[in-house]
Batch of 2 targets.
Target 1
Amino acid sequence: MKFFIDTANLEQIKEAQSLGVLDGVTTNPSLMAKEGITGHDNILKHYVDICALVDGDVSAEVIATDVAGMIKEGEALAKLHEQIVVKIPMIKDGIKAIKYFSDRGIRTNCTLVFSSGQALLAAKAGATYVSPFIGRLDDISTDGLNLIAEIRLIYDNYGFQTQILAASVRHTMHILDCAKIGADVMTGPLSSIEGLLKHPLTDIGLAKFLEDYNKGN
Ligand code: G3P
């Protein structure tokens, strides 16, 4: 299972990278704005800065919503750095753009996916990654994890190579549940990854080991 961090915050990306388990980064226009990164040139520079910090894939989202605009923007994003994956919204023109990029060997991440039908279409178009948003489904009292399971079943039925990138992960249990279902990738905040470290018996056990060691020293 690949671990991506879902942020445009360079310090958090560095922190996750220092753990040695980071496989990539996902961003979106909202995450960029949260870090105060605005304006076309600043956003492009920020993508390059992120690529310099990590070894893996970095999703960079197009803003255009028409196929010609998405192709123009996506080609420019892909040229920025070899680690860039072009992130494209799940709309009709987005599917056309994914097919265009897939035919030319440019990697894509189909974002804003909320149904298994959308995921099937993204795979048919040749998306490298599909991003179902589990937290946002949970927010509206719909089981986000069930969507991951449905997509896993459908992709396995036909051997689709599109990787399921569980997005909108909000907490550590989401990661574990996605791992049990068999999502290929998860993207979440640093806190959700660091949550995997935590167990009170580990803390109690370590304190006891150190206490006992110090008795003889
Ligand atoms: O990057 C897309 C997705 O992970 C956003 O998550 O928490 O805004 O629903 P969230």
Target 2
Amino acid sequence: MPLDIVTGAQWGDEGKGRVVDLLSEKADIVARYNGGDNAGHTVTVAKAVYKLHVIPSGIIHPKTIGVLGGGMVLNPQTFVDEIQLLRKAGVEITPERLWVSDAVQLITPAHRLLDRAQDAALGKAQIGTTGRGIGPAYVDKASRRGLRVSDILDGEFFAGHVKAHFSEVNRLLTDWYHQPPMAVDALMTEYLGFAEQMRPYVRRIGPLLQNALNEGRSILAEGAQGTLLDVEQGTYPFVTSSCTTSAGVFSGLGLGVQPVRRVTGVTKAFQTRVGAGPFPTELDGEAAQSLRGTGANPWDEYGTTTGRPRRVGWLDLVLLNYAREVNGFNEIFLTKLDVLTGLKEISVCTAYQRDGKELRTLDFSGDARLLSQCVPTYETLPGWQADLRNCRVWRDLPEAARAYVRFIEEKTGLPVAYISVGPERSALIARG
Ligand code: IMP
């Protein structure tokens, strides 16, 4: 009964979509356990590029069941749009192979408006959220006012609850944020329409997943965002509002704690971040531009969800080791090694200086204020000039690229099990 977990080791956007796409080939079920449509997972198959925000990217495999776990917050509009998009692309989507937990919390247009109004009101202290209503939806969940997917199943209750929610947020928007009110009646009609479209997919997920494991079927738990955006372990307060780490799998899927076969940490060969918050190894100018790309390709460093240019920097092994500890990684999936081609030298952060002391591991839990006081210490490795995109086995890589990978292994004590060298499914080196 194998349960495998894939989580991001950085600030999201590590390339988890393609990792899940690869690993889910052999999984019976792929389950998202946190976040909502703030995530953007890109999978490239032949010439088709799929950008998914809520439906697990593993659904592209015809025999895989996709699950949206109760730890998620779900915008029903995104859900129905993605079903249409996948069907148009020829992916079969039926309630037999797409399950939504009845415990998932709903994101409404009111949450989205509130998210933007609240972040804007922070002025210089803005988090730079994706504006998808994630924070307000999790706030409603924690303060026990949230709308759960299960509420959809009871029409009368749902209608009353939705109306009360829109009216309450309207008061906040108008009185506190001085914004125009939402047209509650039109929103009600739209929202109640989603109920019927979602109803066939709703399940009580925990027991279904436990049965699947008991019967020997395999589950791949797909994390959204990354460790450093975790609401507790991340660079607080510049984080998202969910548990992004492997610890979120059990509560987010409604499973009892049990052995996990493999926890795969996904990291880019360098570091990126969208939104505000400390980033010790951040680069600017030309060096940044060469890592970021021009935006002409879907895999350049521009947000899948927001289109914002990502901040970029050198790989930070202090943070990678922190992510290893927090998640219990067994292996690393290293993505985008090809992007480093052409650099004469590559710097890697192996320690921080803070208060006259050297830190090789974080002695605080991500705290943004403390992290912003850390100055990175770098080791420099030789770069390589060869294009890696056609490399398919370890020995195809130039010696300098292999040395870079070995350096990461040595400093983290983890095997780098896979290396991606391009956006296509096949642009991959499996170390075996
Ligand atoms: P929120 O999740 O929209 O509330 O955004 C909170 C922070 O997390 C912001 O800095 C976002 O840019 C960041 N964030 C949220 N989702 C993702 C993601 O999937 N990739 C990268 N950053 C993300």
